[in-house]
Amino acid sequence: MIVLLSVRPGTLESTMTEDLSPAERYAASRVRAAEQATALAGFREMYDFGLDDFQVEACSALEGGKGVLVAAPTGSGKTIVGEFAVHLALEQGKKCFYTTPIKALSNQKYADLCRRYGADRVGLLTGDNSVNSDAPIVVMTTEVLRNMLYAGSRTLLGLGYVVMDEVHYLSDRFRGAVWEEVIIHLPESVTLVSLSATVSNAEEFGDWLDTVRGDTEVIVSEHRPVPLFQHVLAGRRMYHLFEEGEGSRKAVNPDLARLARMEATRPSYQDRRRGRAMREADRERERRQRQRAWTPGRPEVIERLDAESLLPAITFIFSRAGCEAAVQQCLHAGLRLNDEDEREEVRALVEEHTANIPPEDLHVLGYYEWLEGLERGIAAHHAGMLPTFKEVVEELFVRGLVKAVFATETLALGINMPARSVVLEKLVKWNGEQHADITPGEYTQLTGRAGRRGIDVEGHAVVLWQRGMSPEHLAGLAGTRTYPLRSSFKPSYNMAVNLVEQFGRHRSRELLETSFAQFQADKSVVGISRQVQRNEEGLEGYKDSMTCHLGDFDEYARLRRVLKDRETELARQGADQRRAEAAVALEKLKPGDIIHVPTGKYAGLALVLDPGVPAGRTGGHRGFDHHDGPRPLVLTAERQVKRLASIDFPVPVEALDRMRVPKTFNARSPQSRRDLASALRTKAGHIPPERARKKRAQAADDREIARLRTEIRAHPCHGCDDREDHARWAERYHRLQRDTSQLERRIEGRTNTIARTFDRIVALLTELDYLRGDEVTANGKRLARLYGELDLLASECLREGVWEGLGPAELAACVSALVYESRVSDDAVAPRLPSGPAQAALGEMVRIWGRLDALEEDFRISQTEGVGQREPDLGFAWVAHQWASGRGLDEVLREAEMPAGDFVRWTKQVIDVLGQVAAAAPAQGSTVAKSARRAVDQLLRGVVAYSSVG
Description:
Blueprint: H1 12-18, H2 22-36, H3 39-44, H4 53-63, E1 67-71, H5 79-92, E2 95-100, H6 103-117, E3 122-125, E4 130-131, E5 137-141, H7 142-151, E6 159-164, H8 177-185, E7 191-196, H9 202-213, E8 216-220, E9 228-234, E10 237-240, H10 254-265, H11 269-273, H12 280-292, H13 298-307, E11 313-316, H14 320-332, H15 340-353, H16 359-362, H17 367-375, E12 378-381, H18 387-399, E13 404-407, E14 421-424, E15 428-430, E16 435-437, H19 440-447, E17 459-464, H20 471-479, H21 493-512, H22 516-545, H23 553-587, E18 593-597, E19 604-610, E20 633-636, E21 641-643, E22 657-658, H24 670-684, H25 703-714, H26 723-750, H27 753-767, E23 771-772, E24 775-776, H28 778-783, H29 791-799, H30 808-819, H31 837-858, H32 877-884, H33 889-896, H34 900-920, H35 928-939, H36 942-945
Parallel strand pairs: 1-7, 1-8, 2-5, 2-6, 3-5, 6-7, 9-17, 11-13, 11-14, 12-13, 14-17
Antiparallel strand pairs: 3-4, 9-10, 15-16, 18-19, 18-22, 19-20, 20-21, 23-24
């Protein structure tokens, strides 16, 4: 028996070892020596804390030559596994690329690794920065690595490990495809380390990684190193969400459930206005209830958390304006969370980080108001902030100098800002289309920030009480662990030309069929395939049961079905014709016509008050159904005024007589209705309703029906004594066969879906002369250098010379239309555009997009499926033009009406695409490349140029 023990003299372990036999002690010493010889042993000594079991398991698998997928909660320390990959790469003389989904994470990881290994051994590559790119460790955004793979960059030489942090981003419908592209195209020699949040289908994702990357170990940990406690803050009281007690199944706190029930039964203001008197006891109970159940204000919440020693805290507010307003509310309430020494430390750090921002821009950026909040320990954090400001907030929060942060959900996406507490104001957020409940996955991601490992004994998630809140629903969010990883992979034009250039069409198609999207689609087909198999077995049994000794009963049953379908079709045509005739007759009605309503609730004598013909209707040019057509307003003989529908008139109706409708008639007056109904009965009560003449059925004269009936009577099976029994089995056979065919079509629709989309993209690119079979043309090579949502539009603009002769500012305006997307869609206000050549070029870009859009429709390439070119958005063109023309920040932001952070982010994206345009534009005989490079220089100034890295 081998006992794995770490022995220290004088400990219990050493005493246990002394009790072993000499052979056992020798074996144990061999194991210890082997452990000490591993890279993991040396790596562990670099940390002043012990590693968790899942970290040891993942690191051991990695050292054993396997790829790993680690799925663990936020804050559990899964990045330790990524850092071990870095350690292995350095020890083996190889390179390690550490990829992250967002630049802020890349900057943060770069700083961490520089502190550990030294700036000379660590590089950074993002869209904004290139620092020491030939270093053995390079931190980068995932898109940068994807572009390097397609370009065949020499930087890939010697690459041994790739760490993909936050790999669950591949579910992101806008950028997720990039993760799959990297995983599929990385050289086989590269070991992949995938780090993910806890997802419910980690094993499925691991199976796919095993298929495309080789031997991959899946390590799933649901253990939080810092336990999380859930609360609801209602008024002055902090309720535990769950009842305290043992067991895995937690019950909702009965006090909280009682509070929700009492709140639900409290009479509303409208109830009291209706005169529902409240007994004195009810009033007293409501008064007490109101005292303890209200939504506390933001300053109140922070003060309460401070009193309970639950700061630092992150309060998630799903609105940028809400975050800024929360800071102002706390300042106006006189909150001060920092002492004088901390205030001085904050000011020194802020001034150090903002030293490079031009002084004239500080006022424009709201610097002084922002600084006042920071000095008091309060800050906002959202995408609309200047990146520098966000980085300062992050650093101050980690140092404990900012104790209350009001943030949008973007902060939950991997930024290292753990807190003792997390507060959620509401459980509803705007998803771009409507206000929707947050999902269990979003709730876990947000509350996962609570509890700092090595600092806090426990973390706290606090949800603010809202009227109508359901504690059971909240408990479901807090307790659900089913949020699967779903692929969002779709081929793009750029991807297609790059793949064909590297692998040819056939091999490219095979590669795309190895995507996680196709893997998931194929797995979903398994259950359907089993159902098809069961159906086919059932069809065999039905076929035996309908066998007739007189002839082919399948053929006989088919004749009967064709006859039935023909009769049904003629009956439907007859009904449609009668409805159309009835609708035409209704159109001819005029006010004052007396009619007989043939059927329905209001059947009988009626006077037409208003024919109800839809505006613009002419002569029944459209078909009618019971949801369409005239809807006459009538007065019935029973004094009711009703708007009838076409369904009340299954047959044509004609006026029986006419009478005058008085101008003074008021449909709302009972007296008016009574008088006119009496006159109606006097005028036409004696006239009998015209009976609808029954027409000869179409089937009686139909030659096809006559032929089919003759064939059926002449068939041998028609004379079988068991004919109807056989017919019942034949009908079952037909229904099951129809169901089976539908299932087979579903299978066909789900298999090879990615490859079929790729085929359509290739066909369109062939039509436009970007591809010729396996050859990538000059046009295609240009497209291969253009990445982004509107890659094909950019390539067509270069091909047609739309941007030739444009100045730097004018080109910046045009390129902005390729990247910018308004936060509010379908804005009725036309965007302001620069005049002259830029305006003409933008108009030409929209024309080219229209042509491409029509072409995509011809080739069945749909934007709703995440493929294709959206319309260029001109909303940032004026802003980009003004900034590139040298206008001041104050003037540009005032005209742009957008936060500084948004302005910087969009400008940097414009700079990124301008760099691509410069690389893709013709080197000879074109002004575009030179103009693009000058545009980059003119945009990269002031707050846009400032960066805290490099």
